[in-house]
Design goal:
two-stranded antiparallel sheet, single chain, mainly alpha, Four Helix Bundle (Hemerythrin (Met), subunit A)
Length: 186
């Protein structure tokens, strides 16, 4: 259980690094006229992601969840894969990536990296990690709870992001929204 707790703490440290990158990039975006969309759900998103980390550790310690080697090591590999996908998204978006929905007028939508194939690849990483991280140590209540709440949150977030992307596409093209807009943020 101690090794798992340290693993979850390492994921938490990674999140703090993400937040530092996000804050730097957010300042860059605002300096270039970036406009935030859908900010109302952001506190709930932060709370849910913190609760995932806390829930993973708490469930394992409180309910004495076992580490099942085949499941656990497989899920560790999956978690590491989600981190790789997340950082591929961040590097593909460069300074445009942040944890909020901010559109910089006049910039074209990103269409390289994982955005070449997926509209919201970072959310794929979040969804998969929300199952895999708790299941490293069989914290199935946390996995199910996070997955359900995250699905509800993503319905709101993706709708806000799509609205922002549609308006950004119209501004860039000067006409109707692009048929295939790729997220500048997720």
């Amino acid at each position: 259980m101690i090794a798992y707790t340290l693993f979850v703490l390492a994921v938490g440290v990674e999140r703090l690094v993400e937040m530092a990158v996000s804050q730097r990039n957010l300042a860059w975006a605002y300096a270039r006229g970036g406009r935030e969309h859908g900010r109302g759900h952001y506190p709930a998103m932060v709370l849910l992601h913190v609760a995932l980390l806390v829930g993973c550790v708490a469930e394992v310690w409180v309910f004495d969840r076992p580490f099942l080697p085949v499941l656990g090591w497989t899920m560790v590999v999956v978690v590491l894969g989600t981190q790789a996908l997340r950082w591929w998204c961040i590097s593909s978006l460069g300074r445009r990536w942040n944890t909020r929905i901010v559109v910089i007028p006049g910039l074209p939508l990103v269409d390289h990296g994982p955005y070449r194939w997926l509209r919201h690849p970072n959310y794929v990483a979040v969804v998969v990690e929300g199952i895999a991280l708790p299941m490293v140590h069989t914290a199935w209540i946390t996995a199910v709870t996070f997955t359900v709440l995250n699905a509800l949150l993503l319905r709101v977030r993706i709708r806000a992001e799509e609205d922002a992307l549609t308006s950004a596409s119209a501004l860039v093209s000067g006409s109707a929204p692009a048929a295939r807009a790729t997220s500048p943020r997720t």
